[in-house]
Amino acid sequence: MNLLLVVTGAAIGAPLRYLSDRAIQTRHDSVFPWGTFAVNVLGSLILGLITGAVTAGAASPQVQLALGTGLCGALTTYSTFSYETLRLLEGDARFLAAANVVVSIVAGLCAAFLGVGISQAIWG
C-alpha cells in the first residue's frame, strides 16, 4: 500500500514538474533555469506544509508518503538543478551558476521553514 501511495503521488508530480517548468521557462528570455527554481521552491513549501501537518497530527503518515515522498519527490529535482548549474558554468555564466546554487538553497530552505510555520500556525 505504501508503494502505491508514493507511485500515485509521483505520477502526478512528474508531469506537473515538466509542464510547470516548460510554462515558466518559456516566459523568460534568460539562460537562468527559472522553471526548475520555481518547482523546487514550490515543492519545498509543500513539503514543509505536509511535514508540519503530520507533526501536528492533522495529516496521516500516508498523506506524507503520497504527497511528501511521491508528489514532492517527483515535483522537485536535484538532478536537473545540478545539470543546469553545470550547463551555466560551461556557458561561462559563472555568476548565474553561483546565484542558482545559493538562491536555490536559501529559497528552498526558507520555503520549507515557511511551510512548517504555516502548518504550526494552523494546527499547532
Describe the structure.
This protein is an all-alpha fold. It has one domain. It is built from five helices and no strands. Helix 1 runs antiparallel to helix 2, helix 1 runs parallel beside helix 3 and helix 2 runs parallel beside helix 5. The longest helix is centred in the C-terminal third of the chain and has 30 residues. It is globular, with a radius of gyration of 16 Å. The two termini are 29 Å apart. The mean pLDDT is 96.
Helix content: over 70%
Order of helices and strands: HHHHH
Number of strand elements: 0
Separate helix tally: 5
Terminal Cα span: 29 Å
Q: Please tell me the total number of domains.
A: 1
Average pLDDT: 96
Shape: globular
- Oligomerization state of this entry? single chain
Beta-strand percent range = under 5%
Indicate the structural class: mainly alpha
Largest sheet: none
Which stretches are low in confidence, meaning pLDDT under 50 for 5 or more residues running?
none
Radius of gyration: 16 Å
